[in-house]
Each structure stands twice: as C-alpha cells, then as structure tokens.
Specification:
Length: 262
Amino acid sequence: MVSNLNHLKNEYDQQGYFVIQNYFTETEMSALRETVQTFHETWKADNETFFQKEAFNSSLITGTQYLQSQDRLKLFNFICSKKMTDIINAIIPNDPAFMNTQLFFNPQRPQQENFWHRDCQYDHHIEGQKKAIQETQVVHFRVPLFDEPGMELVPGSHKRWDTQEELDVRLARKRKFSSDELSTGKKIPLKAGDLLVFSADMIHRGLYGLDRLAFDTLIFDSEGDFVDYVDDDCLPDEVMLEKITNPTIFKNTLYLKSLSEC
C-alpha cells in the first residue's frame, strides 16, 4: 500500500491529478449518497430561482443550514475515513487542513455551457495566478455519486503557465470562448465509487450530462494562506469532534483559525 501511495503522489506531482477506480464500496456510496441528496434536495428548495437559472454547484455541505447533526457527523466521518485520509496524507504530507466541501451537478438550462478555469483566477489577476500555481495548492478529492461524463483536465498545468491557446480560451478573449475545445485537454470519465484527486489550480472544467452529482472535499497544506476561506459553520464543534474518527484535518484547521485570531 505504501508503494502504491508513493506512486499516486508521484503521479499527482507530475500530472496534477489521478483517479482510483472503484475505490469506495456500494455500501459506502449508498450511505454517502443518502446524506448528500438530503442536503441537495433541501438546498434546491431554498435556492429554487438560482438553481433553475444558472447554478451548477453548491458548497458548505457540512454546515448547519441544511443538515442535522447526525447527517453532518456522517459526512465528517466519511471525510476522515481511512480511505480518504490515506490519500490526503499521501498528497499533502505536511499537516493537511480541511477547507470546504462542494457539490457539482448539471445546470438546468441545456444551453448553459461548461468552462475552462483555474480556481485561483477568481482571487487573483494574471501575475497573482502565475504566483499561485508555483506555491502551495488546494486539492480537490472528488467522489462521483453516480456514473457521469466526469472532468476534462490539462495534465501538468498545475505547475506551468498557460499556452497561448489555453489562456485565450480560459479568459474568453481573441474571439475565443471559455467553453471552446482545448487541444491539450484530457477527458476523465468517472463512475460512482471512483476517487478523482486533482489540483484546484490546474486548468480544468466539468463535463455535464447523465446524473452528474459529485461530492468534493477541498484540502490545503497548513503552510498555505487559506484559512480565511474556511467558513466556521462547516467545522465540527468540540462535542462533535469527539465523535469523529481521526479528526486531524479538522483539528489542523481549527488550530490555524485560532492562530489567525490572535
């Protein structure tokens, strides 16, 4: 197992992503699916206009707004399960910390197109983006709840800047659109129970279709300056921490938050 984890770490370092097929059992998936769908149905009802017009994802799944304590605990324990923490610790060996969870689904308008992006482009201008991809990165750990078209990624782009083609498409300039095809893109189909690990700052886009519903956990290296992105409501309190098996990634986040408040 150790050698396999080393192989996955090497693959991530070189390509910016990897997939482990059939990583979770049907029992594990059934439990996760039930909890996430409870969130999703309640969230949709509360955000009906946004959902119908433009939404393709939601976030703060572990928060208190849409899930009861028992369901939140189920998610915390899934995120901290040995299967998840083995991979998390292999990819981020230095005090990995929990950032957020997201849920990705198909937009309701058929004409709504997907788009190429780096997550860091929403926080930084060009020079900031160039700097961000050379520093500590946030990592997505994606679990598709159903079979889906998956993702399209640009391998290796987590460590290098865009080609001219990639930049023009990603920024939708020079008569290009962010939904245009890229010659460097690689499609990664996913099935329920797979685990896709990928850098948030590599060039990527989701592929719409089928019964797309993917649960993402975002983890960051404690050396990175990301703690301000963490919503307090999405973290377990002291009582719940005692009920979580191996809550290290949450304790790391809580520790970083305590430092930031000093």
